[in-house]
Amino acid sequence: MNARGGDQSLATQPTPATGKRKWYQEGLSFECTQCGNCCSGEPGYVWATKDEVKGIARFLGRPDDWLGKEHLRRVGLRYSLTEEPGGDCIFLERKGGKIGCSIYSVRPLQCRTWPFWTGNLRSIDAWNEAHLTCPGMNQGKHFSFVAIEEVRLQKSW
Ligand code: SF4
């Protein structure tokens, strides 16, 4: 699963309270290498709330406070950012060998909370599977259990 590969609901559902120690109780490391894998590749969904859509629209200076079809699609009752035909997120920028997010400061919660999603944290196998496409996992900055849980359970920003 990459940052667009799963159901965002996995990112917000608490795991059952079993009282057992979680496998990541000692914390985990993560530091983004800006490889762009989570914003490209297989098609997926980058869910955005209405407030997030409005925030992106304002950031882009759109007069109508909303994104057009080139940036946003309706999926059932929800909204997802669109993708380029090759799979890049519509806001992924590739310039001079560098990769970046053109709306980084207003990116949706789904992007902000990667890789500390409930789905990735369900088991060490799930975490390691996500690590196959995200080289930033298991390296760099150490996050305590409490810090991870804060990110995992974050509902808005
Ligand atoms: S290191 Fe991980 S979070 Fe950073 S761009 Fe690559 S896949 Fe995405």
Describe what this molecule looks like in 3D.
This protein has 157 residues and is an alpha+beta fold. It has one domain (8-152). Helix content is 25%, strand content 18%. The protein has 6 helices and 7 strands, in the order H-E-E-H-E-E-E-E-H-H-H-E-H. It has helices at 9-12, 50-59, 109-113, 118-121, 124-131, 145-152, and strands at 28-30, 47-48, 72-75, 78-81, 92-95, 98-101, 137-143. The strands form 3 sheets. A 3-stranded antiparallel β-sheet has the order 2-4-3. A two-stranded antiparallel ribbon has the order 1-7. The protein starts with 8 loop residues before the first helix and ends in a 5-residue tail after the last helix. It binds iron/sulfur cluster. Iron/sulfur cluster binds at residues 3, 32-38, 114, 134-136.
Entry keywords:
157 residues; alpha+beta; three-stranded antiparallel sheet; two-stranded antiparallel sheet; binds iron/sulfur cluster
Count of discrete structural domains: 1
Large-scale geometry: globular
Bound molecules: iron/sulfur cluster
What is the number of E strands? 7
Number of helices: 6
Poorly predicted parts: 7-15
> Into which percent range does the helicity of residues fall?
10-25%
C-alpha-based Rg, rounded: 16 Å
Order of helices and strands: HEEHEEEEHHHEH
- Percent strand equals 15-25%
Please list the strands of the largest sheet in the order they lie side by side.
Answer: 2-4-3
Alpha-beta content class: alpha+beta
How widely separated are the two ends? 23 Å
Instruction: Report the biggest beta sheet as strand number plus sense, adding barrel if it closes.
Output: 3 strands, antiparallel
